[in-house]
Structures are given as structure tokens and as C-alpha cells.
Amino acid sequence: MHTGKFTAERRTERIRRACDRLGIKHPVVNDRHYRIWRSFAINAWPSIALVDTRGHLIGIEPGEFDVESVATVIEHASERASVEGTLNRRVLDFGSDPRALLPRDSALRYPGRSIAREDHLFIADSGNSRVLEAEMHGEFTAQILRTWTLADGDTGSPFVEPIGLAISDDALFVADRAGQRVSSIDLTHGAAATIAGTGTLGSGGTATSDLRSPWDIELIEPDTLLIAMSGSHQLMTLSPSSGELTLAAGSGAEGIHDGQALEAMLAQPTGLALSRDRVVFCDSESSAVRTYDPVTDQVSTIVGSGLFDFGDVDGQGEAVRLQHPLDVTVLDGLLYVLDSYNDRIKIVDPARKSVRTMPGPAGTGKALTEPMGVSSFGGKLLIADTGAHRLVLVGTDGHIEPIEIVQ
Fold it and tell me: Sheet holding 373-377: strands in order across?
């Protein structure tokens, strides 16, 4: 049952794309009017309701849950139903093609991020569970040079949903949201290895042994990476050399509350960008753009006001409304924010706390499709236009040029 919080999440075509991206083949009900939600007295995303074969409610569990404990309950209910003779063991085949929405000529599938170094692009090809290196040939064509599908060389753990990318002089760092890992790729020798995470969904809070949906990653010092831990509503630092993880910001409670970093409340932080001595991040569930200052150890909000305050309104301060922004980059002192559920780019002046829609096609809400990743490249914006399975270059005038990815 899908009950959308954001307006865009209630549109059937967007839900269809989300199912395709996540590999969901079973039927999904669009509960856009909250009828099923209210009938089960649900009050949190996500929630799971277990119903037995007689139609009786076994229980409801809000929040992300432990798979093993739920599996045990299902096993017991199945055993009881088998004894009662009410268990139907027929296997259901829904026959859906998980790649049905992919354009035939697309080399990418739901790309999450792309960053550039000189004329080389590094691409998190999230839907294909791989990371690519491509060389630019001309302004709008890139030839794939190398492909990484494993986080530990030829015999290691595969990438699941790599999204976040950061680069140093000799290494590419990858945040794998669904794989619960951060990996390092040696750009000289090509070897990939896990440097944080076990592949197991962590518990969040003050625990740092396992990761919880690492979405993006940013190199903030020579041996310090900052990770947007979207699943636990926190930011963490990671030393690539030692593998040491340290909680940097976020109490673990979901919300929008500024102040001392470890007491601040975040709401699914995603995209990160280094802006002078501060880190700017998108707080997607509160539709906010916020900052973390590692020197003063403070979290503050540029625009955004609450978990249920969203829309598409330009302006200043608390009057601004975004809808699920996912990434941000810095160019010429301004912030360029991917307002993903409004399908457009917003320009944020952090000093004035003002927001305006980007001019041209990139600001119309019709030329981009749920863009997820942005970085600066040659005075332009390099955009992962995720829902359209492509990379594009966007000028500051909002003009869009697709990049052809050649196999």
C-alpha cells in the first residue's frame, strides 16, 4: 500500500517509476486519499501491518523493522494457517519486466550521481548497480572506459545501489545506499574495497558499527569523509585510512531543529556540498536546505520549516517551499538545489536565505524527471536526471544539453 506524503508521491506514474527503480514486481495500491492508511490507524512512514489468512490483523509495526523478527511471525502464522487448511501455496507470477520503463537507447538506468575530474566523468549508475568512468569526447559525448560492479574486487560484495560519489587525488569513494557500505576505488590500479559498513542495516542512534542507508559522501579534509546517513537522520565522518566512523551531527530523531550538532534533529539528509568552511546538505523529508559547521559544531537551516511544510514557492526565509530536494552544489557563491519532486532546479542565496527558480527549461518542471544528483563541471551543472535515465549539462541560463554515453 503506497500512501504518499508529498503531493508528487501520490501520482500513479511516479509510483510506477519508483517500483521500476526499486525492482518491485508485486501489485502496489495507490492509497492517495489515505483511506487504507486511516482504516489501519497508521501514523508513520513506513509501517507494516501483518494480516493472517482469515483476514485478522496480527499486528502493526511502525518504522524500519528487523527482517528476521518479522519473518518469524510470518512463519508461525503460516504454520497455523497450514494446519487450519487456509493457506494457499500457489505461487503468484505478476510477469512484470523490471526494465520495462528503460529507454531502449539508454546506457544508464536511474543514475544517482556524476562527478567530474578534468575530462573524466565518474557515474553512479544506481539502477544497474555499478560505477562507471567515462571520458568526454567533445562537449556532449562520453565514452565508458571502466566499470566497477563489485566493492571488494572480483570476489567481493557487489554494489547494490551506489549513489554518493567523492574523489581525492587517487581514489573514488562510493556510498552504496542499499548495500549499506562505503567503498574506495583505487583509480591507479582499479581495485575496489569496502572501507565502512558490513552490508547489514545499522541501528542508528549512537551506534557506528553498521551504516543505515548512506546516501551521499563528501571529502571535507584529506583524510575525512562526511556521510549523509539518510536512514538514521544523521551525518557521520569516516577516516578512509583507518575506517573509523564518528557521529558528527543528528540526534537520530527525525525533525528540523537547529543547534549543537549532536542535539540537532535532521530529516533524511541526502546530498552534500562543501561551501567554504561549512557543509551544505539537503534535508529531504523536511524539504529543507541546511548547513553543518564542523568548526563551531552547529547545524543551521537556510530554508525549510517542517516535515509537512512543502510545495513550490520562491521567496525568502520561512515563506519558501520546496518539495523533497535531493542534492545541492555550489557554483559562483550560489547554491543550486535539485528540487526533485518539483522536477526543477532552484537557486539559493545562502546569505539572504532566498530562493528563486532557475530560468529556462531547467526551471519549468517539465524538462527534468526527478533529478537526483548535481555537481559543477566547467562552469555548468552536471545533472543526473534520474527518472529520464540520463546525464545532462545545464548552463546558468537553464539551457539543457544531454550527454550521450557511449558503451
Answer: 113-117, 120-125, 130-136, 141-148, 400-406, 390-394, 380-385, 373-377
Can you tell me the distance from the alpha carbon of 62 to that of 50, in angstroms, rounded to the nearest whole number? 12
For residue 367, which phi and psi values (nearest 5 degrees)?
A: -95, -20
Q: Which CATH architecture has domain 7-84?
A: 3-Layer(aba) Sandwich (3.40)
* Count of Cβ atoms closer than 10 Å to residue 80 Cβ: 14
Give me the residue spans of the domains in the chain: 7-84, 113-406
Q: Could you report the per-residue pLDDT of 333-384, keeping only the tens digit for each?
A: 999 999 999 999 999 999 999 999 999 999 999 999 999 999 999 999 999 9
Flag whether the pTM goes above 0.85: yes
C-alpha cell at 207: 551506534
CA angle 190, 196, 199 (to 5 degrees): 95
Pick the CATH number of 113-406 from 3.40.980.20, 1.20.910.10, 1.10.287.990, 2.120.10.30: 2.120.10.30
**Contact status, residue 291 vs residue 232, Cβ threshold 8 Å:** no
Spatial distance between the Cα atoms of 232 and 328, rounded to a whole number of angstroms: 20
DSSP for 221-236 reads ETTEEEEEETTTTEEE
Q: Report the percent of the chain where pLDDT is more than 90.
A: 81
On whether the CB atoms of residues 200 and 218 are closer than 8 A, the answer is no
Distance CA 142, CA 139 (A): 8
